């Protein structure tokens, strides 16, 4: 009995010893299969993921990208090039994923995709905005996080494709048959236009964005030819703006003031009440206004593109066009006023760095933020309140004696994101150096609290628009006279998180004057009475404004030198 027990124990011990080497092998096989499945998920998700947050639906990931079929076929056909093909395709996939993620951010903030040819230079202003609104640590953290995420994505896609290439080479015949079958499915789906709800095509091409680059380059050449045609380039100064002689003309660009502020139910009632009250007070002070809409080239940001479009008469919808414009000799509205002997000034509360573009536009004097003498606390985007900016302009420029008429560009930025804390109006004689705004800022809502939910963000946006409009209307009412003409114009709609999807790009514009002869010059435009345009008001593209303005108040363009369409 004892011998039998001993023999059984020995056999059990031998079997246990024999199983031990197999256990790690089974664990490795399981881990390998899990890693292969994860790699497959990474590759499929990378090729099929949409470039817009609204497109993140389950059906988006069920598509069949052509690049997967071609990659499978190439690796199966040329096994010795497995590593090179997998590494190259993995790096390309990583770059594609990075561009798609950037696209998501652009769609969410600017309502358009990222253009690799034009938009790389926008990352600098974005970091500057984070620095000024959220602090240097946040900006540095965001930059470091973005770089780390990009490296991780590139590593993940490259390693995943290298891993998946191994079983393809081991099972070349099966992989080749799979490639042929998938290719046939892709062609059939493409020919038949097969789609999955909600209208997602089954046959996909992931790298179609590469076709955008040559298209963008062709578009840039067309823009260069268009920019070279200017009907007013050689118009003498004495023939320009003759109907505005002796007038101070102020172009007040209102940040994020879009059509939705007037028509979206979330904002319309309260913003409309501010404008209706302003209409009443302006009429009482002897002013009249005409208003309409302009279609802006940008949404959610890049305000300078809208400024450039309105002032130059060219459609400036990306940073490359802007750079080309400001290095050209294109005549701007500012340049036209200067040629006609106006003193031209720009009061720029958002500018913290040198602004060489001021020379291109033709300003005699540029006041950046540091020159405004503001001693109060910063609001929202680390800027002074709009009432202070307007007060500075009045006492520094308009109150001067023995001066020529003024043309001024004044961006009003209290309605710039993050829209909190929001200033409130004080008496114009109380503004001083801005210290009076200290208690207002201390009692205001922090932007971090305003951004907790979309509803709070929209409420903060609405309050900021109300404040800026009230400040501008109060300025005209308080300091306006027979020689003041003010153009109220929005630069762009706010980001889609404020307006919701599919909002228009229209912005309100109004011309306000006490001298009725000024408004009679634009009677043929069909604009509506008052500073609030109605739903059926005329809509122009913003680049059409320059030529129509110069024509209405001066000389018609020469027919032999056509302007931009």
Automatic annotation (TrEMBL):
It comes from the Bacteria. Residues 1-27 are annotated as: Disordered. The chain crosses the membrane at residues 30-48, 60-78, 85-102, 139-162, 174-194. Residues 8-22 have a biased composition (Basic and acidic residues). Keywords: Membrane, Transmembrane, Transmembrane helix. InterPro entries: Alkaline_phosphatase_core_sf. This is Sulfatase.
